[in-house]
């Protein structure tokens, strides 16, 4: 595959938006015990912080998401990934709330990650970057809130990996969270999901251009590996009915089968396109690290085998949303969380939305998602006098 | 013909300040303020909102419909999408002081199991039913040879969610069979006319009540009767 644009690590620093160095550049201790520092967090904001700093909505992005939830993306030049949910008059109303979306720790859009330069060595981290976890990502967000002088967040919201972070926030920092919205999330990554991630990682690491993770130095990028990883993952974000509706068995730009291995089928062409555009905006090592963080996530085990322990006496109001056709983060995972919240006597709402769009439904036009999440956030805000 | 002949304890449900449907007002009056409760089949959350916001209850809801859940969540009520047959098992024993099941019993697949679950997660259940023993329902069968089609039973048989129609007598038989103690019991007719259901005139209640509300206690833990309904 040919290089279609500058590598992420070359343009990271020039991406628009805010940057903050956490704790004056001090080292941060990670869940693994390793230390990392200085840590920079890149983030975007929308709306205005009110005088008592009580109208903050924190958005946690998914695996391949970033801080550009709204507005033109600086690399793809397409709209943000959550335009449907965030904006003036939208469920996350930027006329009313101060919305913050940080790039996660380990990411590749300006926050410290494997594609960033280690200021201590002036070298790119690559695979010298320490393995991070969902807890580390959330801890970095906690420190970001500290830097911004925000004590309490009105609502932490996220889908997929963002939903994991939402649960981590509520479990570890209940005093700083008024409400939590976990969409298509889970309290732990399933064996099947770990397996899919492993396929993606192996695809990247099998690419000779990966160069044991130090491809930056070689002026290379494991594009075909990352692209295959994205293709495999993309299938898990959709559902068979959604794929069928979109492509069926239609052939791509041809009337007859080619009897070869070109992209005969539209669905193949679509996946190849997904793969090849992804490599322009995402770093392969970041993909390794972030998928690993998701795999390690298991709140139940962290709380002595009973998730209800995570919510003991929690003051946080919860909303969980799942989608019927999501087989990556299926309803059963959300229900497990709901059951544990019930066991803990927590204030929880839950809805399973009818949709055939699979896991990706949380990013798409789902009126019931907007109605439920919008209603929930509105009620939390009204109670807080916002 | 309106009220139970021979009934001594009867009253009319007044308008309530919060616009609650009168029969829900009656249910609400049977709940102690500031108690912990679960409203199963809470619909749009009207009763739950009253209990939470006016009575200071710590209330939760369960509702099967998307529209109902959305309405509840927008009112700021904690409501979980689920149905009585499958999802009551998710709640631990003694999670609540009260569990409410209004106009839902006739729509569940396993009424007996549901009753058991209700009295597992709370020690008092407030259950309201539509009474298929009402004389109009009976007339519909006897004179027209058709399934009941009345004010309170207005959905045609092929569309109704009521898959377990029962009468006041049927319901009370089931409570006896399960050893469930019945506390206060009211028959409601014409939406607002209430009469106590007592063992001595169960048959009459069965004939004249369009719907009925029962306070149910666990078999093993006798409970003190609470005060008269506030109507």
What string gives the helices and strands of chain B in order?
Answer: EHEHEHEHEHEHHEEHE
CATH class of the largest domain in chain A: Alpha Beta
Q: Specify the number of helices of chain A.
A: 12
* CATH homologous superfamily designation of chain B: Vaccinia Virus protein VP39
The CATH superfamily of the largest domain in chain A is identified as Alpha/Beta hydrolase fold, catalytic domain
- Roughly what is the average pLDDT of chain B, rounded to an integer? 89
Question: From the helix content, strand content and strand pairing of chain B, which structural class follows?
Answer: alpha/beta
Count of spatially separate domains of chain B: 1
Strand order of the largest sheet of chain A: 1-4-8-5-11-12-13-14
Largest sheet of chain B: 9 strands, mixed
Mean model confidence by pLDDT of chain A: 95
General description of the model:
The complex is a heterodimer of chains A (386) and B (231). With 386 residues, chain A is of the alpha/beta class. Chain A contains twelve helices and 14 strands. Chain B is an alpha/beta fold. Chain B has one domain: Vaccinia Virus protein VP39 (Rossmann fold, 3-Layer(aba) Sandwich). Helix content of chain B is 30%, strand content 23%. Chain B is built from eight helices and nine strands. Chain B has helices at 22-29, 46-54, 66-74, 84-87, 111-121, 135-144, 168-178, 202-208; strands at residues 10-12, 36-40, 58-63, 79-81, 96-102, 122-130, 181-189, 193-196, 211-217. Chain B has a nine-stranded mixed sheet with strand order 1-8-7-9-6-5-2-3-4, with helices on both faces. In chain B, strand 3 (58-63), helix 3 (66-74) and strand 4 form a beta-alpha-beta unit. Chain B is globular. Residues 1-7 and 227-231 of chain B have low confidence and may be disordered. The chains are: A alpha/beta (386), B alpha/beta (231). The A-B interface holds A 317, 319, 335, 338-339, 342-343, 345, 347-354, 368, 371-372, 374-376, 378-380, 382-383 and B 60, 66, 69-82, 90-92, 95.
């Amino acid at each position: 595959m040919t290089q279609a644009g500058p590598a992420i690590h070359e343009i990271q620093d020039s991406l628009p938006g805010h940057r903050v160095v956490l704790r004056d550049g001090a080292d941060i201790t990670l869940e693994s015990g390793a230390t990392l520092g200085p840590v920079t967090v890149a983030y975007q904001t929308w709306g205005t912080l009110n005088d008592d700093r009580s109208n903050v909505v924190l958005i946690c992005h998914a695996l391949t998401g970033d801080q550009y939830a709204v507005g033109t993306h600086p690399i793809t030049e397409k709209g943000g990934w959550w335009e449907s949910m965030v904006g003036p008059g939208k469920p996350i109303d930027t006329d009313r709330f101060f919305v913050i979306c940080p790039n996660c720790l380990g990411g590749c859009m300006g926050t410290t990650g494997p594609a960033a330069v280690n200021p201590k060595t002036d070298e790119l981290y690559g695979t010298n970057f320490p393995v991070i976890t969902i807890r580390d990502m959330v801890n970095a967000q906690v420190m970001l809130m500290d830097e911004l002088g925000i004590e309490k967040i009105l609502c932490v919201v996220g889908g997929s990996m963002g939903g994991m972070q939402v649960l981590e926030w509520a479990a570890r920092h209940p005093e700083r969270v008024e409400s939590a919205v976990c969409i298509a999330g889970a309290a732990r990554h399933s064996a099947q999901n770990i397996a899919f991630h492993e396929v993606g990682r192996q695809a990247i690491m099998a690419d000779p251009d990966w160069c044991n993770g130090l491809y930056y130095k070689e002026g290379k990028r494991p594009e075909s590996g990352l692209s295959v990883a994205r293709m495999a993952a993309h299938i898990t974000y959709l559902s068979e009915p959604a794929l069928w509706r979109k492509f069926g068995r239609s052939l791509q730009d041809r009337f007859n089968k080619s009897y070869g291995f070109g992209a005969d089928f539209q669905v193949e062409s679509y996946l190849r396109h997904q793969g090849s555009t992804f490599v322009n905006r995402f770093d392969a090592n970041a993909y390794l690290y972030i998928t690993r963080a998701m795999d390690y996530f298991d709140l139940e085990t962290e709380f002595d085998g009973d998730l209800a322990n995570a919510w003991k006496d929690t003051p946080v109001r919860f909303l969980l949303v799942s989608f019927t056709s999501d087989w990556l983060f299926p309803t059963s995972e959300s229900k497990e969380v709901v059951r544990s919240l019930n066991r803990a006597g927590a204030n929880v709402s839950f809805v399973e939305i009818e949709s055939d769009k699979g896991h990706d439904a949380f990013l798409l036009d789902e009126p019931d998602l907007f109605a439920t999440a919008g209603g929930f956030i509105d009620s939390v805000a009204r109670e807080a006098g916002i | 013909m309106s009220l139970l002949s021979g009934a001594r304890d009867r009253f009319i449900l007044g308008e309530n300040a919060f616009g609650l449907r009168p029969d829900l007002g009656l249910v609400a009056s049977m709940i102690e303020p500031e108690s912990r409760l679960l409203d199963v089949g809470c619909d749009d959350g009207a009763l739950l909102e009253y209990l939470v916001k006016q009575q200071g209850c710590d209330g939760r809801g369960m509702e099967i419909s998307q529209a109902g859940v959305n309405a509840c969540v927008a009112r700021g009520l904690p409501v979980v999408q689920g149905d009585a047959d499958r999802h009551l098992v998710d709640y631990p024993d003694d999670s609540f002081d009260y569990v409410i099941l209004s106009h839902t019993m006739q729509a569940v697949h396993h009424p007996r199991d549901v009753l058991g679950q209700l009295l597992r997660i709370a020690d008092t259940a407030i259950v309201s039913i539509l009474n298929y023993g009402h004389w109009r329902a009976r007339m519909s069968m006897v004179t027209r040879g058709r399934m009941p089609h009345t004010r309170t039973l207005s959905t045609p048989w092929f569309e109704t969610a009521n898959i377990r129609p029962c009468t006041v007598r049927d319901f009370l038989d089931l409570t006896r069979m399960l050893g469930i103690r019945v506390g206060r019991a009211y028959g409601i007719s014409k939406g607002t006319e209430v009469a106590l259901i007592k063992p001595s005139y169960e048959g009459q209640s069965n004939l004249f009540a369009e719907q009925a509300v029962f306070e149910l206690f666990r078999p093993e833990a006798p409970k003190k009767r609470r005060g008269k309904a506030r109507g």
